[in-house]
Every structure is written in structure tokens, then in C-alpha cells.
Design goal:
Layout (H helix, E strand, L loop, with lengths): L4 E3 L18 H7 L3 E3 L8 E2 L7 E2 L3 H10 L15 H4 L17 E2 L1 H9 L4 E2 L2 E2 L1 E9 L2 E9 L5 E4 H8 L8 E6 L11 E6 L6 E4 L9 E7 L5 E5 L12 E6 L3 E7 L5 E8 L7 E8 L4 E7 L1
Amino acid sequence: PAVTQLRASNDYGPTDRYWQWRVGRSSILIDAIGLAPSKDGIYTTTKQPGGSQGSFVERRPELEILVATMSTGPVQIADGIGYSNRSLIMRSCAEDGLLLKPSKAMTAMDFSLLEEAFNGTRGSFPNRSEIWGTHSHIGSEVWFHVLAADLQQALFLKLSDVLTHKGSSQEEELIYLAYSLPPLQFQINELKVIPLSARDAGAGFSLEVKDSIRDFELWHFAGVLDNGISILGELSKWVPVSPHRIKQISYDASQVVVVVRGSENEHVVFYFAVCDGNAAPVVYSESCVITGLECSITFSR
């Protein structure tokens, strides 16, 4: 097509920089007409000395690059030479620079818009709660992703609202694992995992107001397969289970095989969880080194 993307944000300039990342609402229309919403450029470090705007301080680089990745548009790194945060940038892509995006643009969730319109949710632009959702579709399996930023008051996130955002009810009989890591730094020992049943209309958990403007919550939701295994994915990435990374998933009664794409000699680490009855999920990791542009990761119970 002649047009593939449309700008969803204001300029990343001195006037609008503190709020221009709020593209969850503007992305609804752009995504609906089949285009990728595009966010303007971003700084990946807090300080960018020199340049036409002097020594600017970026207050939330992690949120900026996350939003750009979830937009499904380009991720436009605007750092000065020598001021890029490579580890932060790599949370968006594979070693060869391929963006690891979800299946559709992340947009404001229906329940949050209804809450704001009819129930008097606190906050007004640009200080308002931003609760967005999207999903990754690979074969017959679906993973969900939810961002909660700048919450003006605590709220309860229901699994039913997450599933509804995709516009499908086929997941009604599944058990899901909701999982999250601290967004400011990858620390696997701080992984949170919450089992949820789609058959329970009230299943969910609380999202709290953050003390720091830099902090936010990013949650993922993975279905538990018939063999009791859940694929949590590549947790070092913003989108841990991306259709741009995963080529194929297969499983039987005791194991899961994930075929991943990447560049030659790239080391890929995937995480899995095993769920047995009412016991707490147990998390494991497996890895592979890519040869010939792909490799298989096998996890057995």
C-alpha cells in the first residue's frame, strides 16, 4: 500500500513532550482503518546535552520507547550521538533490529473510556489514567498485553475486560496467567504471576497509583495449555510473545516446542510456567542459539 502509518502523537518537542506519548485514544481510529499509528521520536536516556534545545531531561524514557513499540509503527530513536541506552532499545527488537511488535496497535481499553465518561474517574488531560490493551496472535494461541500509566486512582483490572478488548469470546473456558516485571529494569526475580480463570466473572487484580511519574505497569496474559504449561515468552522484551519473533508453536501432553526467528548466533531466552491444580505456578527458562535464522526451544515438564 502507498500509506502504511499515520502519526498519532504531537511533536516530541519542548511544548508537548511531557504528554505527547498519550496515543492510546488517537490510535483507535488509525488502527481501525488498517494503518499503524506512529509516535514521534524519543530519547532513550534521561539527559541529552547540547543540541538545539539545550540540556533536556527526559523524565520517562522507558514509557516513551514502550509506547512506540506497542504502536506497531516505527520506533524513532532521536538521541544525540553517544547518548543512546542500548539495553533499553534492545527491549523493543531482536539483535538485527527487527521490531518485536504485537499483532495490533495498543489502544485505550473500552472499560476505561466508559469509566471516564460515566463514572466520574478523577483526572483531566493531560493528567488522566491511561489504560491500554492489545494482543499477540500466533497460530491458534493469543497473548494479551495491558499498559497502566499515570493512574489517577486505584482500579481493579478484570480478566473479562482484557479478553473483551480483543473482541472475541473464544477464550471463555481457559485459565490464564497474568504476569508482570518491574518496567524500569529487567529483574526476573521480581516476576509476578497471578492465575486467573475466565470462567470467574470477577477474576482480576488491583492496579495501584504509582509514587513516581516514571513508573508504570505492563501486564501480559498467557493461556495455560492443555498440558498445564504456559508460554510466558522472552521476558527481556516489551512484547515477550511477538508474531515477529515466533514462527511456530506446537505441543503435546508433556512438552512445548517454540520455533523462533532471529539473526545468526543470537541467544534467545524464553520463560515457561507449569500449573498443577491449585499450586502456585512454577517458572522455568530455556534458551537456544539461532543458526540459519531460526532455532527451536523445547520445554518439557
